[in-house]
Amino acid sequence: MMDWTELAVQTTSEAVEAVTNILMEHGASGVQIDDEKDFEKLQNMDWSQMGEIVNVDEIPHVESGATITAYFPATVFVPEIVPAIQQAVAGLSKFGLDAGPAKVTTAAVDDTDWSTAWQKYYHPVQVTRFLTVVPSWEDYQPQSADERILRLDPGQAFGTGTHPTTKLCLQALETVIRGGESMIDVGTGSGVLSIAAKQLGVDTIRAYDLDQVAVDSAKKNLDLNPIAADVQVAPNNLLNGITEGADVIVANILAEVIIPLIPQAWALLPVHGYFLTSGIIKEKAPEIIAAQKAAGFKILQTLTMGDWYGVIAQKPGEDD
């Protein structure tokens, strides 16, 4: 594999900031922005006054819209996060932003046989005290009586348990689950949180993701874990239209999408029910925490890992 992987998103000038944010939230080390609006500024400058002769048209540039090129280090396996980036960019329309073609392309990943590429990158990882993520091809046995195995095929979807946002959610589950609860997993991705919750003793789980493709990939991972056989997975946008409540609602999704989810979660949780959120980059954490407090939630704990935040919130009773 190359040391760096280049991922480019074709979008519009108005969506540059939002797309850049999405790329940074997914682990990009830096971005290069090629925006037609910047090029227009160059064309309108009076270069002669600066004592320079510049043929602006000869400067390489995009003809329309903007292209944002992100650079990912070798520690990030880019094919895994492409679907999540595509989904997040496409989802900007929900916030009134036109993301344009929203075409995602990658370069500098050489044509390694994919199966060996996965096997090079993924090995059993103990992600919390009790939970270990094991790739589907590894014959791994628990090392202690308390260890719980989550079997995943990392090729199926974003969220192999190794990303900080997933780890924070797994830690949050480990903190609050006592056994016998009902749970809703919003934006289930690879299904990892639902599998972990079953291993920790949750009784019934409903898992949702935006489209059937995401749901199908989550099902493949759930099928690798017999304990998760009864998890119900269905396509749904956040909790729109969901009327049956649950004791725990967990969401590892982009910070922007947590905001509209907050009132939905409040409506579906019982008194003392838990709302666990992750996917929150450091800069967005104060806004998300403030929005949860404004809705009435009590913040029990914030978890951090690098630049990422997870929040354990609870719906208080009258005596709290």
Describe the fold and architecture.
With 320 residues, this protein is α/β, with parallel strands linked by helices. It folds into two domains: 4-114, Alpha-Beta Plaits; 122-314, Vaccinia Virus protein VP39 (Rossmann fold). 30% of the residues lie in helices and 26% in strands. It has helices at 16-25, 36-43, 78-90, 114-121, 164-176, 192-199, 212-223, 255-268, 285-295; strands at residues 4-11, 30-35, 66-73, 103-107, 125-126, 131-135, 148-152, 182-186, 204-209, 232-235, 248-252, 274-281, 298-305, 308-314. A seven-stranded mixed β-sheet has the order 10-9-8-11-12-14-13, with helices on both faces. Strands 2-3-1-4 form a four-stranded antiparallel β-sheet. A three-stranded mixed β-sheet has the order 5-6-7, with helices on one face. Helix 5 runs parallel beside helix 6 and helix 8 (255-268) packs parallel to helix 9. The N and C termini lie far apart (54 Å). Its main location: cytoplasm. This is Ribosomal protein L11 methyltransferase. One of its GO terms (molecular function) is protein-lysine N-methyltransferase activity. Methylates ribosomal protein L11. One of its GO terms (biological process) is methylation.
Short description:
This protein is α/β, with parallel strands linked by helices and 320 residues long. The chain has 9 helices and 14 strands. It folds into 2 domains: 4-114, Alpha-Beta Plaits (2-Layer Sandwich), CATH 3.30.70; 122-314, Vaccinia Virus protein VP39 (Rossmann fold).
Largest sheet features? 7 strands, mixed
- Specify the CATH class of the largest domain: Alpha Beta
Strand content: 25-35%
Strand order of the largest sheet: 10-9-8-11-12-14-13
Instruction: Give the SSE string.
Output: EHEHEHEHEEEHEHEHEEHEHEE
Low-confidence stretches: 50-62
Shape: globular
Helix percent reads 25-40%
Q: Please tally the β strands and state the result.
A: 14
Mean pLDDT: 83
Any idea what the CATH superfamily of the largest domain is called? Vaccinia Virus protein VP39
- As a whole number of angstroms, the C-alpha radius of gyration is 22 Å
Count the domains: 2
Catalytic activity: L-lysyl-[protein] + 3 S-adenosyl-L-methionine = N(6),N(6),N(6)-trimethyl-L-lysyl-[protein] + 3 S-adenosyl-L-homocysteine + 3 H(+)
GO molecular function, one term: protein-lysine N-methyltransferase activity
Protein name: Ribosomal protein L11 methyltransferase
Binding site for S-adenosyl-L-methionine: 166, 187, 209, 252
